[in-house]
UniProtKB/TrEMBL annotation:
<keyword id="KW-1133">Transmembrane helix</keyword>
<dbReference type="GO" id="GO:0009653">
    <property type="term" value="P:anatomical structure morphogenesis"/>
</dbReference>
<keyword id="KW-0732">Signal</keyword>
<dbReference type="InterPro" id="IPR001611">
    <property type="entry name" value="Leu-rich_rpt"/>
</dbReference>
<dbReference type="InterPro" id="IPR046956">
    <property type="entry name" value="RLP23-like"/>
</dbReference>
<keyword id="KW-0433">Leucine-rich repeat</keyword>
<dbReference type="Pfam" id="PF08263">
    <property type="entry name" value="LRRNT_2"/>
</dbReference>
<protein>
    <recommendedName>
        <fullName>Leucine-rich repeat-containing N-terminal plant-type domain-containing protein</fullName>
    </recommendedName>
</protein>
<keyword id="KW-0472">Membrane</keyword>
<dbReference type="Pfam" id="PF13855">
    <property type="entry name" value="LRR_8"/>
</dbReference>
<keyword id="KW-0812">Transmembrane</keyword>
<feature type="signal peptide">
    <location>
        <begin position="1"/>
        <end position="22"/>
    </location>
</feature>
<dbReference type="InterPro" id="IPR003591">
    <property type="entry name" value="Leu-rich_rpt_typical-subtyp"/>
</dbReference>
<comment type="similarity">
    <text>Belongs to the RLP family.</text>
</comment>
<dbReference type="GO" id="GO:0099402">
    <property type="term" value="P:plant organ development"/>
</dbReference>
<keyword id="KW-1003">Cell membrane</keyword>
<keyword id="KW-0325">Glycoprotein</keyword>
C-alpha cells in the first residue's frame, strides 16, 4: 500500500507539473505529440561524451521511463514553434560539449536555426558532417570553432533557405571548389575565415552570384589574389567585406571590390597589398571602417586619395602600411563634414613627416589618435587639449620636440592613455597643476621631466602602467609614491638619478613589474610588493644583506647586478619558480648556495664578480633548464665534478677567473650540444683537452687561456675556425701544442710561438662584439617588432613559458652582457 500511494503521488506530481507547464505556455500541439523529434534530441545527447557544464542535464536519458511525458521544448537550448510544436531551434553555442554531431538531427525536419559553435564536436572522423546539407529548412548554421579537418562538404549547397552560414575558425579545413555557394540564394551572412581557399581563384565570381550577401568574412583563407575582373558587379548590398590576413601581393588598385558603394566595413589588414588607393575610394561614402594596417611590401605609398566625402568614417587604420609623406597632406584628405564622426585614427609605424594642421582641433569625436613610430618632428600643437573625447594619445617614437605645458591638456578630460616616449620633448608642468584626466597608462620614457619627480602624478591614482625611464628625474622618490601608485602593475623608473632610500611602505603595492635599474638608490632593500614577477634594481648602490625572507611567489626575473649587496643569498628566493637570477658584481659571499637545487625553473644564473668560494657542487648538472651559467671572477676551487651531460639547454658557460683545478672531465662538454660560449680561462685546469670538444658544433667562443693544460689540441673544423678567429684562446698553457702549426707536436708549445703577446681579453672582446652585433642584434630586431606590437612585458612573459626558447634568453642575456660592457 505505501508503495502504491507513493507511485500515485509521483504520477500526480508529474501530472501537476506538466499541467502547470501547459497552463503557463499554452501550445495546441504539445511536443509529446512529436515523439520522433524528442527521440532525435535524445539520440543527439547520447553522442555527447562529455558535458562538463551540465547543459544537457535537463534532457532526460533515452531509457528514462518518464521521457514520454517530457516536453522537449523546455529543454535547454531547444526552441519550438508555438503553433506546431516542431523544434525550430537548437542553440548550444560554446557550452563545452565533447562528442559527435549525431545524424539523428535529420529527424528535426523543421529545424531553422542550428548553433553548435565553440564545442568539441568534431567527433572521431573529424569531418564536417555531410548530412547537415539535408536539413533543408535551416536559415542559420553556425559551426564556428569546432575543430574539424578535411573539406567543406558541397552538400551544404542544398540548404537553399540558408541566410547565415558561419564556418569560421574550424581548424584545418579546406575547400577547393566553392561553387556550391551559388545555390544559397538567400544568404545574407557568410563567414569562411580560416578555411583554406588557396586553390579557389574564382571566389569573387562565385560570390558575385549571391546578390543577397550583406556580410562576407574571408580572413585567414590563404586566398591568392583579389584582382579578378568581374564583368558585372551584382554585389550592391554588400556592407561588410573582411579579407584580413590573406597574402595578395598585387596592387591595391586592381582589387575587384572598389565599386561597391554601400560598403560600410572594409578590412584589408595584413593583405600585402601595395600601391595607391584608387580614386573610387573617394565615392565610398557609406564607409565607416577602413582597416588597411599591416600592409608591408616593398613599395611605399602616399595618400593621394581624398577622403573628404566619407562623412560616416569612424575608424581609419593605416598602421604599418608603409605610408609616407606629410601628415598635413594626409590630414587634409580626411573627412570634413559638419558632423565629423571620426573616432579612431591609427597611423602608427609609418614614415610620416611634417606638422599637425591646426584644424585638427575640430576632430571633436576623436577617441584614439595613434601616430607612434613616425618621423614627425615639430612641437606638439596645443589643439590636442581641445579634444575632449580623446582617450588614447600615442605619439611615441617620433621626433617631436619643444615644451609640453599644462595648456596642452586643458580640456583633455577623457584622456586615459598617453604615450609620448622616445621623442625630444620637455614636459614642464607646475607643481600645483591638477590634471583634468585620470590616466591609466602614462609613458614618458626619454622625455625630459625632471629633475623633480612630477608632482601632478600625485593625482593619478588609477595608473596601471607608468614609464618614466630616462627622464632626468633626480632626488628621492616622493612620499606619496607607494600610495598613489598602489594600483599600478607596471612601473619603470630606470635610468634616472633617483637616490636615497626606497620607501618603506612599498609592500602594499600591487606591482608585478618594477624596474628601478640604473639609479643611485642606496641602503638596504625594503619589503617589496608580493605580486612581483619582474624586479630589476641593478646598477644602483644598494647595500646590506637581502632580507632573510626575500622571495616572491610569482617572481620570474630578479636582477640585482652591480650593487654592493653583502651576505648570503636568502634561500627563500628559490621557494618559487624563478627563471632569471642576476646577482653579479655585488659582495655576496659563501659557498655555492645549495638551495639553488630547488630552483628547477632557473634559466639564467649569474653570480659573477662576487666572493663565493668552495667547490662547484655536482648537482649543478641537475639544473635542467639552465641556459646561462656565469660564475666568473669568484673564488671557486676544486675540480669540476659536475655531470654536464644533462645540461641540454646550456648555451653559455663561464667559470673563468676562479681557482678551479683538475682536468677537464670527458663528459664535461661533449654532450652539451647547445653550447655557444665556453670560458674556462684563468683557472688552474690541467691535463689534456678532451676530443669531445670538437663535437660542440654551435660553439662560437671558447677561452681556455691561462691554465695548465697540456698535450695536443684536438682539431676539427669548428675548433679550427674558432682558433683562427681568436688565436688567444689557448694562450698561457705552457704544455699545449697544436698539430696544424707544429710539425712535431711533442716538443713545441704555443706559448713560445709568440701568442703570449696577445692580450687574453682580446678574445673576450671579440666575443662580446660578435654577440652584440650578430646574435643579439638580430634577435632584438625580431623582439622589438614584438615589443611594438604587444608591449614588451607581455611578450616577455609569454616567451618565458617555453622551455629552451631562444627569444626568451636573448633579452635577459643582453643585460648579462651589457653589465660587463661599459667597463671595457
Ligand atoms: C512562442 O511564444 C513565446 C511567448 O508567447 C515567445 O516569447 C516566443 O518567441 C514564441 N516562439 C516562437 C518560435 O515564435
Ligand atoms: C557563430 O558563433 C560564434 C562563436 O560562438 C560567434 O562569435 C559568431 O558571431 C556566430 N556567427 C553568427 C553569424 O552569429
Ligand atoms: C545535395 O547536394 C549534393 C551535391 O552537392 C547532391 O549530390 C545531392 O543529391 C543533394 N542532396 C539532396 C537531398 O538534394
Ligand atoms: C593551404 O593549402 C595549401 C595547399 O593546398 C598549402 O600549401 C598552404 O600551406 C595552406 N595554408 C595554410 C595556412 O595552411
Ligand atoms: C551576377 O553577375 C554575373 C556576371 O559577373 C552574372 O553572370 C550573374 O548572372 C549575376 N548573378 C545574379 C544572381 O544576378
Ligand atoms: C593578380 O595578381 C597576381 C599576383 O598576386 C598576378 O600574378 C596576376 O597576374 C594578377 N592578375 C591580374 C588579372 O591582374
Ligand atoms: C604623393 O603623390 C603625389 C602624386 O603622385 C605627389 O604629387 C606628391 O608629391 C607625393 N607626396 C610626397 C610627400 O611624396
Ligand atoms: C622609413 O623610411 C626609411 C628611409 O626611406 C626606411 O629605412 C624605413 O624603413 C622606413 N620606415 C618605415 C616604418 O617604413
Ligand atoms: C625623418 O625625416 C628627416 C627629415 O625631416 C629625414 O632626414 C630622415 O631621413 C627621416 N627618417 C626616416 C627614418 O624616414
Ligand atoms: C596579487 O595577485 C593576486 C592574484 O592575482 C590578487 O588576488 C591580489 O589582489 C594581488 N595583490 C595585490 C596586493 O595586488
Ligand atoms: C628544497 O625544498 C624543500 C621543500 O621546500 C626543502 O625541504 C629542502 O630543504 C630544500 N632544499 C634545499 C637544498 O634547500
Ligand atoms: C661526438 O659525436 C659523435 C656523433 O654525434 C658521437 O658518436 C661521439 O660519441 C661524440 N663524442 C663524444 C666524445 O661525445
Amino acid at each position: 500500500m505505501p508503495f502504491l500511494s507513493a507511485a500515485a503521488a509521483a504520477a500526480c506530481v508529474v501530472f501537476l507539473v506538466t499541467g502547470a507547464l501547459a497552463l503557463q505556455q499554452p501550445r495546441p500541439y504539445p511536443s509529446y505529440w512529436l515523439p520522433h523529434e524528442r527521440d532525435a534530441l535524445l539520440v543527439f545527447k547520447q553522442a555527447i561524451t562529455s558535458d562538463p557544464a551540465g547543459i544537457l542535464a535537463s534532457w532526460p536519458e533515452r531509457d528514462d521511463h518518464h521521457r514520454h511525458e517530457q516536453d522537449c521544448c523546455r529543454w535547454r537550448g531547444v526552441r519550438c514553434s508555438n503553433k506546431t510544436g516542431h523544434v525550430l531551434e537548437l542553440d548550444l553555442r560554446n557550452v563545452g560539449l565533447v562528442g559527435e554531431i549525431s545524424n539523428s538531427l535529420l529527424s528535426l525536419e523543421h529545424l531553422q536555426h542550428l548553433d553548435l559553435s565553440m564545442n568539441n564536436l568534431e567527433g572521431s572522423t573529424g569531418r564536417v558532417p555531410e548530412f547537415l546539407g539535408s536539413l533543408e529548412n535551416l536559415r542559420y548554421l553556425n559551426l564556428s570553432g569546432i575543430l574539424f579537418s578535411g573539406t567543406v562538404p558541397p552538400q551544404l549547397g542544398n540548404l537553399s533557405k540558408l541566410q547565415y552560414l558561419d564556418l569560421s575558425a574550424m581548424g584545418d579545413v579546406r575547400s577547393t571548389d566553392v561553387s556550391w555557394l551559388t545555390r544559397l540564394q538567400f544568404l545574407l551572412y557568410l563567414d569562411l575565415s580560416w578555411v583554406n581557399l588557396s586553390t579557389v581563384s574564382d571566389w569573387p565570381r562565385v560570390l558575385n552570384m549571391i546578390p543577397s550577401l550583406k556580410e562576407l568574412h574571408l580572413s585567414y583563407c590563404s586566398l591568392a589574389s583579389a584582382n579578378q575582373s568581374l564583368t558585372h558587379l551584382n554585389f550592391t548590398g554588400l556592407e561588410v567585406l573582411d579579407l584580413y590576413n590573406n597574402d595578395f601581393e598585387h596592387s591595391i588598385e586592381s582589387c575587384w571590390f572598389w565599386n561597391i558603394r554601400n560598403l560600410k566595413y572594409l578590412n584589408l589588414a595584413g593583405c600585402s597589398l601595395y600601391g595607391r588607393f584608387p580614386a573610387a575610394l573617394e565615392q565610398m561614402t557609406s564607409l565607416r571602417v577602413l582597416d588597411f594596417s599591416d600592409n608591408h611590401g616593398e613599395r611605399k605609398r602616399n595618400m593621394t586619395v581624398n577622403l573628404k566625402k566619407l562623412c560616416k568614417l569612424e575608424i581609419l587604420n593605416l598602421q604599418e602600411s608603409r605610408s609616407y609623406g606629410d601628415v598635413t597632406e594626409l590630414f587634409d584628405k580626411l573627412p570634413v563634414c559638419s558632423s565629423n564622426k571620426l573616432k579612431e585614427l591609427h597611423l602608427g609605424s609609418n614614415n610620416l613627416t611634417g606638422v599637425f594642421p591646426n584644424w585638427m582641433g575640430q576632430l571633436t569625436a576623436l577617441v584614439i589618435l595613434d601616430l607612434r613610430g613616425n618621423n614627425i618632428s615639430v612641437p606638439l600643437p596645443a589643439f590636442i587639449g581641445q579634444l575632449a573625447a580623446l582617450r588614447t594619445l600615442d605619439l611615441s617614437h617620433n621626433h617631436l620636440d619643444g615644451v609640453i605645458t599644462a595648456e596642452h591638456f586643458f580640456n583633455a578630460k577623457s584622456l586615459q592613455y598617453i604615450d609620448l616616449s622616445h621623442n625630444f620633448l620637455k614636459i614642464e608642468i607646475s607643481k600645483e597643476w591638477q590634471p583634468p584626466f585620470r590616466l591609466s597608462t602614462a609613458m614618458f620614457a626619454s622625455c625630459q621631466l625632471g629633475p623633480l619627480f612630477p608632482a601632478w602624478l600625485q593625482w593619478q591614482v588609477d595608473i596601471v602602467y607608468l614609464d618614466l625611464s630616462r627622464t632626468g628625474i633626480a632626488g628621492t622618490l616622493p612620499q606619496w609614491f607607494a600610495n598613489t601608485f598602489s594600483n599600478a602593475i607596471d612601473l619603470d623608473l630606470s635610468n634616472n638619478q633617483i637616490n636615497g632610500v626606497l620607501p618603506r611602505n612599498m609592500d602594499s603595492m600591487s606591482l608585478s613589474y618594477l624596474h628601478l635599474g640604473s639609479n643611485q638608490l642606496t641602503s638596504q632593500i625594503p619589503p617589496l610588493p608580493r605580486n612581483l614577477t619582474y624586479l630589476n634594481m641593478s646598477m644602483n648602490s644598494l647595500s646590506g644583506p637581502l632580507p632573510t625572507d626575500f622571495g616572491f611567489p610569482y617572481l620570474q626575473v630578479l636582477s640585482l647586478f652591480s650593487n654592493q649587496i653583502t651576505g648570503y643569498i636568502p634561500r627563500s628566493i628559490c621557494k618559487y619558480r624563478i627563471s632569471v637570477l642576476e646577482l653579479s658584481n655585488n659582495n655576496f659571499s659563501g659557498k655555492f648556495p645549495s638551495f639553488v637545487q630547488n630552483c628547477t625553473a632557473l634559466q639564467v644564473l649569474d653570480l659573477a664578480g662576487n666572493k663565493f668560494y668552495g667547490r662547484l657542487p655536482p648537482w649543478i648538472g641537475n639544473l635542467k633548464s639552465i641556459r646561462f651559467l656565469r660564475l666568473r671572477r669568484n673564488m671557486f676551487s676544486g675540480n669540476i665534478s659536475i655531470d654536464m651531460t644533462s645540461l641540454k639547454c646550456l648555451q653559455y658557460l663561464d667559470i673563468a677567473h676562479n681557482g678551479i683545478s683538475g682536468s677537464l672531465p670527458r663528459n664535461l662538454i661533449g654532450a652539451m650540444g647547445s653550447l655557444e660560449s665556453l670560458d674556462l680561462s684563468r683557472n688552474k685546469l690541467s691535463g689534456e683537452i678532451p676530443e669531445s670538444l670538437s663535437n660542440l658544433t654551435f660553439l662560437s667562443y671558447m677561452g681556455l687561456s691561462y691554465n695548465n693544460l697540456a698535450g695536443r689540441i684536438p682539431s676539427g673544423s669548428q675548433l679550427d675556425t674558432l682558433y683562427s678567429e681568436n688565436p688567444a684562446m689557448y694562450t698561457g698553457n705552457a704544455g699545449l701544442c697544436r698539430p696544424p702549426l707544429q710539425k712535431n707536436c711533442s716538443r713545441n708549445d704555443l706559448s713560445k710561438k709568440g701568442h703570449t703577446e696577445i692580450n687574453e681579453d682580446h678574445g673576450q672582446d671579440f666575443f662580446y662584439v660578435g654577440v652584440e652585433c650578430g646574435f643579439i642584434v638580430g634577435l632584438w630586431v625580431v623582439f622589438c617588432t614584438q615589443l611594438l606590437k604587444e608591449g614588451w612585458r607581455i611578450a616577455y612573459f609569454h616567451l618565458s613559458d617555453k622551455v629552451c626558447d631562444n627569444l626568451f634568453v636573448l633579452m635577459v642575456v643582453s643585460s648579462v652582457f651589457w653589465q660587463d660592457l661599459p667597463r671595457r
